[in-house]
Amino acid sequence: xxxxxxxxxxxxxxxxxxxxxxxxxxxxxxxxxxxxxxxxxxxxxxxxxxxxxxxxxxxxxxxxxxxxxxxxxxxxxxxxxxxxxxxxxxxxxxxxxxxxxxxxxxxxxxxxxxxxxxxxxxxxxxxxxxxxxxxxxxxxxxxxxxxxxxxxxxxxxxxxxxxxxxxxxxxxxxxxxxxxxxxxxxxxxxxxxxxxxxxxxxxxxxxxxxxxxxxxxxxxxxxxxxxxxxxxxxxxxxxxxxxxxxxxxxxxxxxxxxxxxxxxxxxxxxxxxxxxxxxxxxxxxxxxxxxxxxxxxxxxxxxxxxxxxxxxxxxxxxxxxxxxxxxxxxxxxxxxxxxxxxxxxxxxxxxxxxxxxxxxxxxxxxxxxxxxxxxxxxxxxxxxxxxxxxxxxxxxxxxxxxxxxxxxxxxxxxxxxxxxxxxxxxxxxxxxxxxxxxxxxxxxxxxxxxxxxxxxxxx
Length: 459
Hints:
Layout (H helix, E strand, L loop, with lengths): L1 H34 L22 H10 L2 H8 L3 H4 E5 L12 E2 L19 H5 L3 E2 L5 E2 L19 E5 L10 E2 L1 H14 L8 H23 L1 E3 L4 E3 L2 H9 L2 H20 L1 H6 L7 H15 L2 H4 L16 H15 L6 H22 L2 H4 L4 H28 L7 H23 L10 H5 L3 H13 L1
Antiparallel strand pairs: 1-5, 2-6, 3-4, 7-8
Helix pairs in contact: 1-17, 3-11, 3-16, 6-13, 7-8, 7-9, 7-16, 8-16, 9-14, 9-16, 14-16
């Protein structure tokens, strides 16, 4: 019937109207949710732009670690047999002061480490201290005195192997005056008086600051809550010690890019290195993962330019630079917490290896020792992990998005309008249809009555 068609058209028009009103409601709510800004200048809003003294932006590093899966490749690499065992000497005495520290009884009590059992150490490593070079020749490389960046533990008879993944860098309960004394000694007695006087002094300071900040980031990401006896990230302490200091965060990025530049410069050596643990399949996997890291766009980019360092009148500064860094490596023997000492020595050796690669001749790159290769790539992974921690702390620090009172009022008004229109559409008569009076429905027609009387007469 015609009136049914009109009714359907009216229903369709009302449905379209309701649909567009609903879209308008969603648009207003969406705009309103984004209109309430987070607190002015939060720490994560200030971490952007060019990394000082580098040729790269913060966003480019974040993109490479996440979108190019560099962090993922590094995480897999450091869990292979070759890269998980690090050689360290715990018997060296502190040459500067008597050790005095406390491993908190209220904490997790993780200051100690266990030696890797003899049968777990790769067989080729047990057979000889002489390491094969990339061309297969056996060498026993020793640094010249003038090229020594740190005093290594690798050749000491008291060294032992530590399983790095089994002893991660985190809060251990290492407290007391000893940790504070170590960092104070590093900054006050072994850094340059004016760390920003020249590029070499800036590089030195940024490397040490980056190491300090990276260590702090790992501790607060894997923090022990003494009340609940559980591990969880400590966002307030991270914000207080690191987040509120964008320069410290950027120094983490700087050190990562510095290490990455050294890794790229040694790419030929690392590509052909003999990653031999006696397990051919896993050794091949380690080599493949190294290649994945070396082929990342950021690794091949110009992240840091070492060519201006120690040129001209500043050439004599290199000896002072090396002396200070070697002195810092000896301070790490004053770290009484064994877990902390492992990661301190690992990263100092990793940064020293990067310095050797960038500032020494090609002959030294071709003869890196096994512990140096392990330290370099493990330290690169640690700083990529620190950057990942920064990103996660950023998300945790962001305030929840809220809706303003104006949006709530607009939502209520639109809801009332939509409800009213829907109600009208249900009770409104179809267009073109006229209601018949009630009295006309009960009055029989004249024609009908005449027909009935005619039928009765004929009968």
